[in-house]
Specification:
The complex is a heterodimer of chains A (382) and B (524).
Chain A (H helix, E strand, L loop, with lengths): L1 H30 L4 H13 L2 H26 L7 H18 L5 H30 L3 H24 L18 H6 L8 H18 L1 H11 L1 H6 L4 H28 L10 H12 L4 H18 L2 H5 L3 H16 L1 H15 L4 H9 L1 H17 L1
Chain B lengths: L1 H4 E12 L2 E12 L3 E5 L6 H8 L7 E6 L2 E2 L5 H6 L2 E4 L11 H6 L5 E2 L2 E2 L1 H15 L14 H14 L4 E5 L7 H16 L3 E6 L2 H7 L2 E6 L2 E7 L5 H9 L17 E11 L5 E11 L3 E5 L6 H9 L4 E8 L2 E2 L5 H6 L2 E4 L3 H5 L6 H5 L10 E2 L2 E2 L1 H14 L16 H13 L5 E5 L7 H16 L3 E6 L2 H7 L2 E6 L2 E6 L6 H8 L4 H9 L4 H6 L1
Parallel strand pairs in B: 3-10, 3-11, 6-9, 9-10, 15-22, 15-23, 18-21, 21-22
Antiparallel strand pairs in B: 1-2, 1-4, 4-5, 7-8, 11-12, 13-14, 13-16, 16-17, 19-20, 23-24
Helix pairs in contact in B: 15-16, 18-19
Classes of the chains: A mainly alpha (382), B alpha/beta (524).
């Protein structure tokens, strides 16, 4: 009974965040003298109006689900893996590199192996941060931020000097390694939609199973919520840290592989790590680190990106304004604390004994995060 | 007449949360200059009532009279202005600030826009001298003892001009010496005309300090009695609503083979300070070995070392003939250790997880709770339901977060989990801390039951009467060593107190017989 109300309340926060974002976006459009209703309906049409747009939106959604799942998994274990962007880039590069290195392999072998190469590249990259965290207590936040930079320049170097002869992009991957499927392309009027969306949905289900139904998932949750109690219960915090970071990176790497083998069909020199990673972070927060929530949040972000790109053409809203609207939605997702605060205050006035508050505090993320740090520091000394 | 005598009068206070009445027509009157105890089990509604008085909650109905005049207390500030101040059980101090900064926080004195700490410090000094509230005004809160933090909290309230002080479970975190100190302070406060309401469920403290006592049970005020004219037994019966036994029923123990043997171990704490210094002890099947001692004498480190949570620097620990020192916790658990940890919130439970998930914490990786890495949620649920039933854990559903259970029920859940695995050694660290009489009675009888089933029980407690009542042998721990091992029937609380303070057994015995020598012994 209490459980249901809790879930409802949890859902209310992201939904209000999104509505607030749209509201502020509308006000901004009004300020710049655009009709927000026209603007938003152009956005909606641009995201779902025709099979082609639906295809594009889903194509955008697929890797976002992956990076969000990756971020969420680490988050459940109590870690802030801000490096999903770098891990996705590594996965992207790894998969393309494998595909162009073995062009003669038949598709049923080449495609899975290329994907696997991307997955492994992402996992190893995140594993560095996991290893440093588990054995030396180094903050995974700092390490993954730094590894984002390292990954970008490593990849750019590899493209220019190893994968090609001073070119800024690799050749196209062989057809056999492509995630595109003819029937999907036909169905969506030549959109870039590829099989990644199915993989993402399957992975969301598998992550849900992992978290809720397996002993490993139970350990990941316990370590994330209370590392001291996990240690007392005989769980290996070190092992759990490394496993969850490897899985987190693997999921992000798979998202990157979709960009390489599905969307772009190559890899090229970039000026920054793909925004896919940071958008994934926002998607995971909006989806409350829950696989089902993540699917819907990723779809929203995909629709904003794709639909937003129609707004300048259809109603003349400059793309900067579109970006401001999207940014506000992300802002409210991030600042959902504010919304939670108002909801809580409302709740306190109507019902709920004060004692409840203490236990809420004890389980809050900030404390459990600092708890992780303390416990780990202690472990290192031993 | 009586109107003026009563500084606080709460009449017919009712506070409703949804369908639940936390306070149901409660009456409470506090006279000027008295220490008034508010007694009740956990969840009886004491805190709700005091939160109403201190402005944190508003009553659904009822009147509050302060100094004979009807008052509306709709915020802590309003309470402050009426001279009502509350010292919470969990201190509300900023760790990084000094005592002075904490005391003036929120009512800072300024001199042309700048903080005037000098005159504030002077004023605090005066107050602290006047009431014997010894604090170091320039020490940072994180560096001072819990007792001193509490004195800072009391000073904070007095500094704001409180005439009526509410102390919520003030002794829960204090050592016996600090409790004596606090009682002196409370007396000097009332001598100066201040009134004190003390929330507690410790009966002996009520007998020691309180003038009158109001008993609350399930949200209703049962009675207000003069403490002098009543006994602890009567108070306990009123609080619980049935007859309670203090003495633990037990037959003499029949110790059998050695289960745990600790041989000359040394353990450091997380800061690298040696806390256990060459300690040895043995616990046998069929006995309860109680460890008495003041907090911080190495008890926590000893338990952590036995359970594998902390490294042993040197020495040997043997559990049922197997050496277990520096094994990982799971291996020790599987060698036959059950462990009720000292801090149930930080160590014993994962609070946001459900009751069933917490019940599975030690056995989730084994059949029947899981198979091939997949949890069997049906079995987890029925296992948790079985344990909850057997151990009288009161809950709405095993899928609710364990954080929503009361402290007593959380502790029963831990005991259920640890005892059900049939451990040969059960460590119970502070098993009744913060619990009410009913729950304490239950937990003690469970510990004795374990002993009677030929298990070895190692009990660590700061509560002397608990150690005296439950143990078959008592080991007093002082500065990382066992100072003496005594039998409960051959010792007294005074003797234990002296041993805990570092005197030797001979000296303690001598001074108990000849009380004048006591002072010197302690100071040696």
């Amino acid at each position: 009974m209490n459980d249901k109300r809790q879930t409802l309340n949890n859902l209310l926060v992201p939904i209000l965040s999104v509505l607030m974002g749209f509201l502020i976006g509308a006000i901004i459009m009004l300020v710049f003298n655009f009709n927000p209703i026209e603007g938003y309906s152009a956005m909606f049409k641009g995201a779902f109006g025709t099979p082609f747009y639906i295809g594009e939106t889903l194509r955008q959604t697929a890797p976002l689900i992956m990076t969000a799942l990756g971020f969420a998994l680490a988050n459940i274990a109590g870690f802030f893996n801000i490096g999903v962007a770098g891990q996705a880039l590594l996965g992207w590069t790894g998969s393309v590199w494998f595909a162009i290195s073995f062009p003669s392999l038949p598709s049923p072998i080449l495609l899975p192996l290329s994907i696997l190469a991307g997955v492994l590249a992402g996992a190893l990259w995140a594993g560095i941060a996991g290893f440093l965290r588990a054995f030396f207590g180094v903050s995974e936040v700092i390490v993954t931020i730094m590894l984002n930079h390292t990954s970008l320049y490593t990849v750019n170097y590899l493209i220019r000097n190893v994968m090609t002869d001073s070119n800024d992009s690799t050749p196209r991957i062989p057809e056999a390694a492509s995630l595109r499927m003819e029937w999907l392309t036909d169905l969506t009027n030549n959109s870039t939609l590829h099989a990644g969306i199915f993989i993402s949905l399957i992975m969301a289900f598998l992550v849900w199973v992992l978290i809720k139904k397996t002993t490993t998932g139970y350990e990941i949750r316990a370590v994330g919520l209370n590392p001291m109690a996990s240690k007392y219960a005989g769980m290996s915090t070190k092992r759990t840290i490394i496993v969850s970071m490897l899985l987190s990176g693997a999921l992000a790497g798979l998202g990157g592989a979709m960009e390489g083998l599905g969307n772009f069909q190559n890899v090229f020199v970039q000026g920054a790590v793909p925004t896919l990673g940071f958008d994934g972070l926002a998607v995971a927060l909006l989806g409350l680190s829950n696989p089902i929530g993540i699917i819907f949040a990723a779809l929203l972000f995909g629709a904003l990106k794709i639909g937003g790109s129609s707004m300048p053409l259809a109603v003349g809203v400059p793309s900067e304004v579109v970006d401001i609207v999207i940014a506000f939605i992300i802002f409210f997702v991030g600042a959902n604390y504010v919304i939670r605060f108002f909801l809580e205050r409302n709740k306190k006035k109507t019902a709920g004994p004060i004692e409840k508050h203490d236990s809420d505090k004890a389980s809050g993320t900030p404390e459990s995060l600092s708890g992780t740090e303390k416990a780990d520091k202690k472990e290192d000394k031993e | 007449m009586s109107q003026i005598e009563n500084v606080i009068e709460m009449r017919g206070i009712t506070k409703q949360f949804g369908n639940f009445k936390a306070n149901d027509n409660i009456n409470l009157s506090v006279k000027k200059g008295e220490i008034h105890a508010l007694l009740g089990e956990n969840g009886a509604g004491k805190s709700t009532l005091m939160n109403i008085l201190s402005g944190l909650l508003e009553p659904t109905s009822g009147d509050i009279l302060v100094n004979g005049e009807k008052a509306t207390i709709d915020s802590p500030n309003a309470a402050n202005l009426l001279g009502i101040g509350m010292v919470h059980q969990h201190f509300m101090l900023v760790d990084d600030f000094t005592v002075t900064e904490n005391i003036i926080l929120g009512s800072e004195k300024t001199k042309s826009g700048f903080l005037d700490q000098k005159s504030a410090r002077k004023e605090i000094k005066e107050l602290s001298d006047r009431y014997g509230l010894i604090v170091d005004p320039s020490a940072r809160v994180e560096d001072i003892t819990v007792g001193m933090q509490q004195r800072a909290e009391i000073l904070k309230v007095i500094y704001r001009g409180a005439e009526i002080l509410i102390l919520d479970e003030p002794t829960a975190v204090l050592t016996p010496q600090e409790i004596d100190e606090l009682i002196k302070i409370m007396r000097s406060l009332t001598k100066e005309g201040k009134s004190i309401i003390i929330i507690t469920h410790k009966l002996d403290e009520i007998k020691r300090v309180a003038d009158r006592c109001t008993v609350i049970r399930r949200g209703k005020s049962i009675d207000t009695v003069n403490v002098k004219e009543t006994s602890q037994q009567e108070l306990a019966n009123m609080m619980v609503g049935r007859s309670v036994s203090f003495k633990v029923d037990k037959v003499p123990s029949e110790p059998k083979e050695t289960i745990l043997s600790v041989d000359n171990i040394t353990v450091k704490d997380s800061r690298g300070i040696e806390k256990v210094k060459g300690l040895s002890l043995e616990v046998h099947a069929g006995e309860v070995l109680g460890i008495a001692g003041i907090d911080g004498n190495g008890q926590s480190e000893l338990i952590q070392a036995i359970s594998g949570m902390t490294k042993v620097e040197s020495g040997k620990i043997t559990l049922q003939g197997k050496e277990i020192q520096n094994n990982v916790p799971r291996k020790i658990t599987e060698s036959g250790l059950g462990h009720i940890p000292e801090d149930r919130h930080r160590v014993g439970l994962v609070l946001p997880m459900s009751v069933e998930e917490n019940m599975a914490l030690q056995t989730y990786y084994k059949e029947p709770l899981s198979k091939n890495g997949f949890l069997n949620q049906g079995k987890m649920r029925s296992y948790a339901e079985k344990l909850a039933e057997e151990f009288d854990v009161r809950l709405q559903s095993v899928s609710e977060p364990i954080a929503s259970l009361s402290g007593g029920n959380q502790q029963k859940a831990i005991i259920a989990r640890e005892v059900d695995r049939n451990p040969s050694l059960l460590i119970a660290a502070q098993p009744t801390r913060g619990l009410d009489v009913g729950a304490i009675e239950y937990i003690h009888s469970r510990l004795i039951e374990q002993r009677d089933n030929d298990r070895a029980v190692l009990l660590v407690s700061f509560e002397l009467d608990e150690v005296m009542n439950v143990s078959d042998r008592i080991a007093v721990m002082y500065e990382g060593k066992i100072a003496a091992i005594v039998k409960p029937e051959e010792t007294s609380e005074e003797e234990l107190g002296l041993l805990m303070a570092g005197s030797s057994l001979e000296k303690a015995r001598a001074s108990v017989e000849n009380p004048t020598a006591e002072e010197e012994t302690i100071h040696e």
